[in-house]
Amino acid sequence: MKKILVAGAGHGGLTAAVHLSKNGYDVTVIEAKEKNDLGHDWHDSMNMSAFDMSGIPRPTKEMYIASKAQSFRNPAGTVRIDLPFINNDEGFYIDRKVLIAYLIECAEAAGVKFLFSHKILAPITKNNKVLGLKITDGKFETKLEADLVIDAAGLNSPVRKNLPISCGVQRTIEQRDVYHVFRAYYKNTTGEVTNPPVTINMFHMNRPGIDWTITEEDFVDVLIGKFGSAGVLTEKEVEETLKKFRQDYPFISEETVRGGQFADIPLTKMLPMLVCDGYAAVGDSAGMTIPLNGSGIVLSMKAGRLLADTVLKTKGSYSKKELWSYQYEYFQRLGKELILISTLKNFFTYVDAKQVDLLTEREILTADNLNIYNGFPLTAELVGKMLGTVPHLMNLIPHLLGSFKGYPLLPLVSKAMPKEYDEERVKAWAKLYSKL
Ligand SMILES: Cc1cc2nc3c(=O)[nH]c(=O)nc-3n(C[C@H](O)[C@H](O)[C@H](O)COP(=O)(O)OP(=O)(O)OC[C@H]3O[C@@H](n4cnc5c(N)ncnc54)[C@H](O)[C@@H]3O)c2cc1C
């Protein structure tokens, strides 16, 4: 029986584990945390398409709560942009602990084994092939062998970071492609709820990135964020922002109800190589988020299913040649759509709060192009508008051109991607892709 190790109980790894175990593979998930400690201490937005495509049964109604209406505010507070709100069960908020517990329950029911409270130290490799994982329970180190390692260990995966350079997988995700956040729920002292409940503040406190408040009768969910291009989010910045939020919303108390952690999210397009011999990355480890807001749950789960489908079709050597079809399918079906968003994010790292004010006041940034859950249907038009109609933003033109210079290559990159693995053609493709 083929042995598969899943590094980290990430969403995509768990999804792949369910399908592989159901199909007779010997699958073990190695997770650093205790079972009860898994999942962030807050709710996240996602949608049913993740379950439908991944083949995991939809969660029951009591497991999630309804989506909420959102509005964006510009840095000066002069413009409020309300996003269209559709209240149905397709999009929802789910407690991350509930979601992870559910995915683990599905995996256990499918026969997946778990080693909780075991930290992965590094992959075991020989001649560019991943042969297993070196792990520890805090006292003893153990070597586990596998036919395939699925890397679902997130942004700072110790597996990806320690692959031999010659494997061709990017080992680190650059600081400028990381979003630093702090998130906590504070007690709502009066029960007042804003209308709409979700307020997303662009370049709040002149800091590149977004902050949000989501008001509920019992608590206020506060997220404070900063693009990595502007440095690491500091405790002082968090304190100052909380102070400002408490001036604007006096009902936000000092009492933390949940969360209160700093965390990092990759904001990048898919990494150029997701596979090598005996190895495949999925989820945050592979750069699979929406590169402007960091939503990665849906993409991770869908990718987990694509990976499992590829593994099921292979002859069992799990060479990069066999696993390439997973990367091909992910890119063609999901990843390529996100490239424009990634370049837009790169552009936003050059913009300052005053320029965001101009872009909103002149209605260049509107509800249509801020609604990333609609897949940014107007992003290309947005770029055109910025380039063509804003002479007062002249100093941004070089950055716009710089950020989007690779954009015309997109159809070419998509077409040039070899469907079957061929070392030279894949290398040439990855080089072209990296230019986007
Ligand atoms: C504040 C915040 C808000 C977010 N909001 C949303 C949202 O609303 N919607 C959305 O879709 N996404 C959201 N995201 C992004 C989302 O969390 C990720 O994109 C998503 O979790 C996919 O990541 P993953 O499953 O690949 O890995 P992760 O969720 O990072 O899981 C990796 C797992 O690997 C384990 N691990 C790591 N290192 C080791 C090791 N050495 N040994 C063993 N195990 C290890 C970790 O403990 C963890 O369980 C948010 C993220 C943050 C931080």
Cα distance spanning the termini: 41 Å
Fourth-tier CATH superfamily name of the largest domain = FAD/NAD(P)-binding domain
Percent of residues in helices comes to: 25-40%
- Sheet/helix structural class: alpha/beta
Shape, principal axes of CA atoms: globular
Mean pLDDT: 92
The CATH topology annotation of the largest domain reads as FAD/NAD(P)-binding domain
Q: Identify the bound ligands.
A: flavin-adenine dinucleotide
Let me know the largest β-sheet: 7 strands, mixed
Instruction: State the CATH class of the largest domain.
Output: Alpha Beta
Write the layout of secondary structure elements.
Layout: E1 3-7, H1 11-22, E2 26-30, E3 43-47, H2 49-54, E4 64-66, E5 70-73, E6 80-82, E7 91-95, H3 96-109, E8 113-115, E9 119-126, E10 129-136, E11 141-145, E12 148-151, H4 158-161, E13 178-188, E14 198-202, E15 210-215, E16 219-227, H5 235-248, E17 252-266, E18 275-276, E19 279-281, H6 297-313, H7 320-333, H8 339-348, H9 353-361, H10 367-370, H11 379-389, H12 397-404, H13 410-416, H14 423-434
Parallel strand pairs: 1-2, 1-12, 2-8, 5-14, 12-19
Antiparallel strand pairs: 3-7, 4-7, 5-6, 9-10, 10-11, 13-16, 13-17, 14-15, 15-16, 18-19
Helix pairs in contact: 1-3, 1-6, 6-7, 8-12
The structure holds flavin-adenine dinucleotide.
